[in-house]
Amino acid sequence: MYPQSELNGLAARKRVLLQHIALRRIVCDEAAVQAARPLVWLDRMMNYWRGLTPLAKIAAGPATFIALKTMAPRWKSVRTLLRWLPLSLTAFGSLRR
Q: Model pTM?
C-alpha cells in the first residue's frame, strides 16, 4: 500500500493535469475555429456560385475584367486573380466531387 501523503500528492497532480488538458482543449478549439474561417468563406462562395445560372457564370469573367479595367487600372495582380476566379472555382468544385 502507498502512504496517504503520496496518494494525496498524486491526486493533486492529477487535478493539475486535468486542468491543463482542459485548457489545451479550449486553446485548440479556438485555433481550429480561426483556421476554418477562410474555408467557411470559400464554401459560402462555392454555394453561391453553384446557385448562379450558367449564363451568369459565362458573363462573370468578362464583366469582372471590364469592371476592374475601368475602376482600377493599376491593380494588375488583382485583375489577373479575378479574371481567373470563375475558372478556378469551377475546377475546385470538380475536385471536391
A: 0.44
